[in-house]
Inverse folding.
C-alpha cells in the first residue's frame, strides 16, 4: 500500500469514529455544532445540531415551525443564544421541510411522511432524554415556534421536573392541533412560560382568547410590534423592523429562570 492510500484510509477511519450515531463531540470548534441523532420509540431517526459550551451550563432546546428545519429557522438566532453562554440543541422534527433554506434531515429519511403535528411530540421527549443521558445539567429551557410552540407547552407540563422554562412563539391551536392543544396545559403548567405573538396575529379571536388564558393562569405574554409568525419575530431581516425590544423581553425572561 502506498503512502497516499494509507493516509487516505487513516483519515476515513478517523472520520468514521467521529461521526458515530448519537455521539456528540465534547467541544464545539469555533462555535460550530456537532451533528447528533437519536431514535424515537416509534423508530424515527431524529437529527439535530448541538452547540456545546459546557455541560454544566443551561441548555436551550429549539424546535422549529411547520415546513421548516433547525438550521434554516434558527441560523440567525443561535449565535445570540450561544453568546449568552447557553448550550443549544436544535432539532429537525418529523414535521418540517425546506422553509428558510437548508433542509430537514429527519424528513429526508422518511419515505412517506404522513405524520401530523401532534406526532412530532416523541422527538421532543427524546431530546430531553438525550441531554439527560449525556450528562447535561438538569433544568432545560424548551423553545418552540408555531406548532412546536404548542407542543413545548405540553412537554413542560408533562416533564416539569426536567424543564426550567418555556418560550412559545405563536403557539398553534385549533383543529390542526387536535389532541395536543396548548390551552389544556396552561393551568397545570408549573414552570415559567412566555408566549409571544406578532401584532398582526392579535386580530384573531382565538389568539386573544389564548392570550387571556395564558395571563389568567399567571404566565407571561408579549406582543411584538411589526413581528413575524413564530421565532422569526426575532430576525430583523424577516420582519424588516428593529427586533431589539423583542430580544430584550426574551433575554429578561431567560435571565429570570
Amino acid at each position: 500500500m502506498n503512502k497516499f492510500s494509507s493516509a487516505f484510509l487513516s483519515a476515513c477511519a478517523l472520520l468514521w469514529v467521529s461521526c458515530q450515531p448519537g455521539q456528540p463531540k465534547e467541544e464545539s470548534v469555533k462555535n460550530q455544532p456537532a451533528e447528533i441523532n437519536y431514535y424515537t420509540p416509534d423508530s424515527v431517526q431524529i437529527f439535530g445540531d448541538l452547540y456545546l459550551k459546557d455541560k454544566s451550563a443551561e441548555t436551550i432546546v429549539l424546535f422549529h415551525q411547520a415546513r421548516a428545519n433547525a438550521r434554516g429557522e434558527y441560523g440567525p438566532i443561535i449565535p445570540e443564544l450561544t453568546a449568552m453562554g447557553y448550550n443549544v440543541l436544535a432539532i429537525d422534527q418529523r414535521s418540517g421541510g425546506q422553509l428558510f433554506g437548508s433542509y430537514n434531515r429527519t424528513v429526508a429519511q422518511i419515505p412517506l411522511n404522513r405524520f401530523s403535528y401532534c406526532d412530532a411530540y416523541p422527538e421532543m421527549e427524546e431530546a430531553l432524554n438525550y441531554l439527560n443521558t449525556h450528562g447535561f445539567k438538569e433544568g432545560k429551557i424548551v423553545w418552540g415556534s408555531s406548532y412546536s410552540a404548542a407542543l413545548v407547552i405540553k412537554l413542560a407540563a408533562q416533564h416539569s421536573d426536567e424543564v426550567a422554562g418555556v418560550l412559545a412563539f405563536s403557539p398553534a391551536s385549533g383543529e390542526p392541533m387536535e389532541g395536543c392543544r396548548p390551552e389544556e396545559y396552561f393551568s397545570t403548567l408549573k414552570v415559567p412560560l412566555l408566549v409571544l405573538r406578532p401584532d398582526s396575529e392579535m386580530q384573531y379571536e382565538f389568539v386573544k382568547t389564548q392570550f387571556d388564558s395564558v395571563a389568567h393562569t399567571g404566565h407571561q405574554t408579549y406582543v411584538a410590534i411589526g413581528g413575524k409568525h413564530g421565532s422569526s419575530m426575532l430576525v430583523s431581516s424577516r420582519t424588516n423592523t428593529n427586533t431589539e425590544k423583542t430580544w430584550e423581553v426574551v433575554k429578561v425572561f431567560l435571565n429570570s429562570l
